[in-house]
Amino acid sequence: TNGFNLLAFIKIVVGFLHPLPPFVSPPRGGFCAGATHPHTLNAISSLGKLLQAMGDHDGAKAQLEEALAGRRETLGDANPDTLASMNDLGALLRDMGDLAGATPLFREALAGLRDLDGPAAHAKTLDSARNLRNALLELGDDAGAAALASEYPGI
User: Fold this and answer.
1) Rounded Cα–Cα distance for residues 54 and 91 (Å)
2) Does the structure show a pLDDT above 80 at 16?
3) CA within 20 to 30 Å of 134's CA: 13, 47, 147, 153, which one?
4) What is the distance of C-alpha 38 from the center of its chain?
């Protein structure tokens, strides 16, 4: 039921479900995990992605920034969830035309994923490398994009 609770919570926040349907119940003890609890940060991140998909880039940016800040504080910069938040916020910023804001996030996410993965390039690392390469191409840094493409063939 946690998946239903999270989905219902997100829909309620953006105004889709009024009132709470009978199959959705609040978690035991209520919503008391705290603002920086990993489950809370997951919900904030999910809300940001939902707002992005709905075209509310400003609302999405606020949520994704909050999720990233909370994850940095709670989990640390090298945590896979924090690195995913960097990549998510970077992708939104790039979509908004803010390449100067997106590129450092892509670089940091890729560096962290490299440290986690070692010489292996897992799917998230490849996605991060692809995001950075695309941002570099949009910035006109063809040499930087080519270096990434040679390091990660197929991106």
Assistant:
1) 15
2) no
3) 47
4) 13
Q: Give the pLDDT confidence of 23-55 residue by residue, as tens digits.
A: 544 444 444 567 788 888 998 999 899 989 989
- Global pTM reads 0.79
Residues in contact with 139: Cβ distance below 8 Å, sequence separation at least 6, in sequence order: 99, 103
Give, in degrees to the nearest 5, the angle at Cα 145 between 87 and 137.
80
Evaluate if residue 70 carries a pLDDT over 70. yes
Cβ atoms of residues 154 and 126 within 8 Å = yes
Determine the longest span between alpha carbons in the chain, in angstroms.
57
Measured CA to CA, the distance from residue 21 to residue 29 in angstroms comes to 19
